[in-house]
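Sanity check record (used in CI):
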Amino acid sequence: MPEIGWEGQERLKSGKVLVVGAGGLGSAALLYLAAAGVGRLMVVDGDRVELSNLQRQILHSTADLGRPKVESAQESLNRLNPHCAVEVCARRLDADNVSHTLSGWDLVLDCSDNFPTRFVVAECCWQEGKVLVSAAVQEFTGQLLVVEPRQSSPCYRCLLPEAPAEPAGPLGIVGAVAGVMGCLQALEALKLLIGLPSRLTHHLLAFDGLRSSFRLLERQKAPGCPLCGGSP
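Expected output for HesA/MoeB/ThiF family protein:
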């Protein structure tokens, strides 16, 4: 493809991508990043493989039940592409360890499933000038955005200043929806690594699996944003 060529493939080979979360989103994103020839990947996840999650966490299998997700993910990715160097970090990110963990990586994919992690990752990426590709899924829907601090794109908290209220009960996720959004995360990451622009630096991509529809919604900077506003 003319958009990639040998130069683009070399950029992928020298690319360094950190993925937060080896669950539903992370499984799809990691598989396609490794398959595309990204040279180095870091998988960050503090959880273990559970049976109830396997309908969407396709990096893992029933043989991995009870194992740390990062170990299972590393083995799966090494089988897929042994030339991709896969590093792992078996812990949950927080304010104390996030900066050290994210240091040295070109691009960060937030594939986590909770708002405390999303906020701390988004804030660290913004403060350290790292490009963030963030996705979320719930039931039949998904959302995807890109934050590129050096291009003055709206930050994550321009869209979501505070975490929303917790739902009254547990919400399910259709496994294929997580796959769709994880694949789209990988696509945006690959475009960014080879130097192609992303429209999602100023837009939110919303997917509705029930209606089989996508919507592209404009994002704007919030003047009073607690992260990138006048008095962060």
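The longest helix spans residues 175-193. If this sentence no longer matches the regenerated tokens, the check is flagged for review.
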